[in-house]
Amino acid sequence: MKKTIHIIICIFVGLRLSAQVVDTSSVYKDRQDSLKAAVFVGRHADGISKGKDIRTEVISAAGLQKMACCNLAESFENSASVTVGYSDAATGARQIRLLGLSGTYTQMLDENRPVMRGITSPFGLSYIPGPWLESIQIAKGSPSVINGSESMTGQINLEFKKPTEEKPLFIQASMMTDTKADFNVTSAWQVSPTLYSIFLGHVDGNFKTFDMNGDGFRDDPRMLQFNVSNRWLYYRPDIQIRWGIHAVRDHREGGQEGYDKDGYVRGKPWGTNITNSLVDGYIKVGKPLREDGSASVAAIADYTFQKTDSWFGQRSYLPRQNSGFLNLLYRNQVNESHDFTMGISGTLDILNDSRLAFGGAYGEYTFHSGETFTSILGARVDYYYNKDNRDEGGFRFVPRATLKYAPWDWLVFRANGGRGLRYSNPISDNLGILSTTKVISMDNGLPEHPLEDSWTFGGNITFYLPSSSDNTSISLDYFRTVFYRQVVVDYEQSPHNIWLFIPEGRNSSSDNFQVDFNAEPFERFTVALTGRYTLAKSPTLDGRIVEKPMTSLYKGVLNLQYKTNLSKWIFDFTASVNGSARVYDFMKEMWDDDGSILYKEGRTPVYPLLYAQITRRFKGFDVYLGGENLTNFTQKKVIVGNPSFPGFDASCVWGPIMGRKVNVGFRITLWR
Q: What total number of domains does the chain contain?
């Protein structure tokens, strides 16, 4: 009995220390409850977090199970903040959009450690299985400087299941009508009183591919992925060490049946053949300097290697990337009102023969006036180094600020703003351009890895309405992003060319408005309604500034969930309406099969998507049946042209490629 009590105390204290010491790099600032919210996330509702200083949307483990999502790319259908779409119709690569801009401008974090950078970004979302996660935290705007300056539109932080997990064994498996099978297993165990470990395994693939629209191209590539991770925690009251390793092997073949990458010539079946291999290892060390944890030091180190062997018809893209990240930080909570963090960090990317590096010092000061007012002022000074172009380097100053004001319990104001910087990888950032036979032209003024520069400002007002539920709220957001230097991809100069260039004196911008409503009208029935309007503008090579193509103007999402007593039955329903987007100029002349113009007024149609799922829970065993895209809506004429001619394009994707799908699966949980 004494041993059991001792272990429970160790776990509890360890979790608190993790939040206060190792995760001092947290962008969410209220660190004492950030990890607790992740660990016990099943008890918490999704929605806008009331306690966070920055506007943070939380998708809990329970929220991830509202649909039979298999990986991170399929986990945002309940959110209007994040939109996910295919980068092309051949590779299966998914891309998110936050604040109306590409996901490359959103910093992805693995428990506050930067991930999915460089050549990993096109497929990185599919390498995070949903059943591995405890929660997802979406922070819009310009968050903390502690994790670097690459967050331009926001951050998405992923909280994984912990080595101290109370489930020694969890198994999930599912099968879809498109023959895609998914299998996940997690197993946590206590090796000794001070050492804990968790193993996470995943495999997915499809047995058959389909061509439902009859265009001669697979709707989804043939895929097979193996994915494993092992995470460890060593805890003593005077020190805590976390470390782990993650490895992925992913192969996919898309396009036309019969494609041969070794013997392809124009006139033969066109396709894609992609193999990705990734290994990532990290270590976090934290040490309290005071018994109450109010002062601490921490070190975070990470190394990632990835190689990609990818073929697109005759084109090949064969990058190799080694990346290292180091962050050393010191935190001191002087008293309940004053808190500061300072440190040094650096990142090195070796991409084939290129060398990119940036690093420097940062500081962040937080002032709390009780529960009413919080201000966070932070700044970084980094030196940027580009081996191939010294003009892309030098010192850069990155300021950021966050304000939170809660004059009453039912009203919270938030605002944040600041600068963002990142080195661009023009090909991997825009992988879809390889799924064409068009000539890819680089403007003479385009360096190999340009340094992009943006500013984002915005705010949020949240009203908590009186009701029987603590989760009834209305939230209003506005954020604006302006790029002062950016790599722009222009499809519109010629049907046979794609241009990449940096506009001079003409800035890309995005204005994003959003309204969220969450309520529990009666016990065990929740309603979440979200609407988002985005106006994104982008310059063209010939001097125009136009509405950013293939970016929907608005999106609305309604999610309903009802649970019976003791949650034996769970019913989930999600409906979304997706607004129109401006198509590329060369698509305006496309014709439908009936002879009518496909894109009237040069815009895509407004279309709905419906999802539903029923879950039956037994003791330690869940069975679920779900349906996706129940309206069976698909984009017409996904493939533009013929691969035997220069104008062929498989990257003009704005809507669903696959029609209605049904999913059946189960979850088995063993508790301690």
A: 1
